[in-house]
Each structure stands twice: as C-alpha cells, then as structure tokens.
Amino acid sequence: MMMKALVSNRNIGTRVLNLASGKSFGKGVELQDLSIPTLSSQEILVKVHAVALNPTDFKHIDIISPRNAIIGCDYAGVVTSVGKEAPGGWKVGDRVAGAVHGGLFPDRGSFAEYLKVDGDLAWKIPDGIKDEEAATYGVSAVTAMLALNARLGLPWADDAVDVEGDNNDAQQTPNARTILIYAGSTCAGLFHVQLAKLAGYTVVATASPRSFDLVKSYGADTVYDYKSASAVQDIISAFPNISSAVDCYSEGKSTEFCTKVLKATGGRKVITLLDMGKSSTPGVEYELIMAYTLFGRPFAWLQPVGPKFAAIPSDRTALARFYANLPRLISKLKPPPIRLIDGGFDGILMGLDDLRQGKVSGSKLVAKL
Ligand SMILES: NC(=O)c1ccc[n+]([C@@H]2O[C@H](COP(=O)([O-])OP(=O)(O)OC[C@H]3O[C@@H](n4cnc5c(N)ncnc54)[C@H](OP(=O)(O)O)[C@@H]3O)[C@@H](O)[C@H]2O)c1
C-alpha cells in the first residue's frame, strides 16, 4: 500500500551552503508517494490525523536531512496495525499521539499519511482531547521532560502530583527551589514552566513583554524582559537562590544571560537546546540536550563527516515513562496555544516558512491531514 509523505530532496552541497549562509536555498522537500512503513514486532502503525510543527523540521529540511527522509516529528492519529510483540497494549482503532525521529530516515516521520513508532514510545489520547491538542505533546513537551526530570533531576510530575485529584503537595513545599527558564514563551518554554511548577519549583522566566501574561498563565511566578539591560541584575536581586537554568532559545547571548545569573546565585548548570559551545565561566557548565536521544537509537548527521550520536537507554526509559503517565497528567499539563493551519501538506510548508522567518510567537502551528 502507498501513502503520501513530505520527503527531503536536498543534496549535501546545498545543505552546507545553507548552514554557512544561514539561508534556505530551494524548496528542499517534495510530496512523494511512498510505501507505507513496514513494522517491526515492537512497533505500531498510525494513520496520522494531525501534526504539530517544530523549528527542527525546517532546520532538518535546510541542513540536516539527507535525500529521501520523511520530515516531521509530532503527530496524533489512530492505530491501524500492531506489531506482534509491541508493548503498550495497543488495539486497532486506539487514538495515539507522540513524536518520532523525523527528518533522518526514509521510513520514519510524521508529515505522512502513516507512520510507525515503538509501542511504548507513544501515548493514548484520552477522551475529550482533540487530535490538534494531542499533537502538541511532541518535541516541545518531551524536551522539557528530558531537561528537567531526566537531566536536572527535578521530581517527575507523576511522582510529585496526585494526578487523580487536585491535591498538589509539591506546589506547597515551603523551601521550593528556584529555576530560570529563559524564553519561557517558546513552546518548549511553556512545557518547561509547567513541569517545573509540577515539580514544586519557583519558576523565573524571561520573555518579550507581549508574552508576559501568556507565560504567567502557564505558571511562571515572575517573568522578565530578556531585552532589558537590567534583567540579569533584577533576577539576581529578586531570586538569589536560583539553582539551575534551561535556555529554551539558545542563540546569541541567551546562554551567557543564564550563566551570569547562575554565577551570582550559585547555580551550576545551564541546559541548552542548541550547541552553545563550552561555558567560559568557572563553576557553571553547559549541557546540550537533544530530544532525539529519547528514541533509543544511535544516529548521525551530515554523513560521512558530521557528528555521530550514541543511543542513551536511560533517555528512552524516560520517554516511555512520560508517555505512559501523560494520559493521567493531561489535566495538569496544558497544550501551548494552538494556531491551526489549513491546506494539508501545502499548509505545513507554509507554516514551516513562518517558523523559519521567526513569525510565530507563543503558539504551536498544527495542521490536520
Ligand atoms: N535540543 C532539542 O531537542 C530541542 C527541542 C525543542 C526545541 N529546540 C530548539 O529550541 C528553540 C525553541 O523551540 P520552540 O519550538 O519552543 O520555539 P518556538 O515556540 O517556535 O519559539 C518562538 C518563540 O521564540 C521567542 N524568541 C524569538 N526571538 C527571541 C530572542 N531573540 N530571544 C529569546 N526568545 C526569542 C519568542 O518569544 P517572545 O515572543 O516572548 O519574544 C517566540 O515566542 C528552537 O531553536 C528549537 O530548534 C531544541
């Protein structure tokens, strides 16, 4: 059986040119008819109903994706086939969502009519949650879990929260610790803010003034304008005990901003979402995380010269735990504001262009297929 999918088609020369110039030459992707992915015994097949867009999708198209890779990570849909030993207790017809490692493989990606995914790395959409909402708990959400719970060791939402009721003891802990979430209005940032609050932390965030109310409505205790010349000092004065930071922007001077705060408050680690090199501040280290390590498989970019990444089994375990508990946590973990885009696959390409041009603020683009 065949399906339609958005597939990368750039050669290595153009990708290197894009990397060097910061531009995007050519379209880089085309709609193709492909065979529906073949399942391993551990996997399920999903008919995709909605997809959410991430900056990583256009970055893959422009720079990382080899030819013939299916683009796209986040999805929501319905199970149409179940591998013989697939974990998760799936049945045909179950509603399902999650993220896959799109942009690198010819048979794995969400901007397609069908996708395959390991049975324990997807979550069951509860009644009352729409596909377009469910699709947003992909890369942005799992990155927040990876940064906060798996790497910084914040209490897991399923441990810290009585997910069946309204009682949230963690939020009433008198000596709650404090974390800085830089760029709290990014979709990744909104999930970081929420998971840090569920872990009982005081959350100090940065954003543009236009996003202050949004970030506060997701739980941030205080929000500072990252463009203000006094923001670093204001944060240090008001919160002299910040123990760690996640830089959800990780470009320009954002990580340096976080480092200045932590140096004064005694914090030791800034998690970054893009490669910001090494910290030049003694006592404060940078740790780059990548959502792709959650999928449990090694991978490589820009072969044969680019970097190789080992599988990190503990990250895979973390993703399985997060998605197993998400159906019960969902009432405590809001999706980002959603902007629905029309036009199916064409709409996805237009949405990716908006992301590429920095035209999206405080919302997640979602397309229905
Ligand atoms: N390593 C990983 O695994 C991983 C995972 C997820 C995301 N990422 C990366 O993290 C970044 C954020 O991703 P996302 O999907 O969360 O982004 P997003 O929602 O598309 O981000 C949009 C937001 O960026 C903020 N922004 C724009 N310019 C800024 C600046 N100069 N300084 C600070 N913030 C600025 C804007 O906030 P205001 O409107 O408030 O200014 C806007 O709301 C991207 O670079 C993405 O590739 C990496």
Automatic annotation (TrEMBL):
Pfam families: ADH_N, ADH_zinc_N. Signal peptide: none annotated. It comes from the Eukaryota. The keyword Ribonucleoprotein does not apply. Keywords: Oxidoreductase. SMART domains: PKS_ER (SM00829). One of its GO terms (molecular function) is oxidoreductase activity, acting on NAD(P)H. SUPFAM superfamilies: GroES-like, NAD(P)-binding Rossmann-fold domains. Residues 28-367 form the Enoyl reductase (ER) domain. CDD domains: enoyl_reductase_like (cd08249). Belongs to the zinc-containing alcohol dehydrogenase family. This is Enoyl reductase (ER) domain-containing protein.
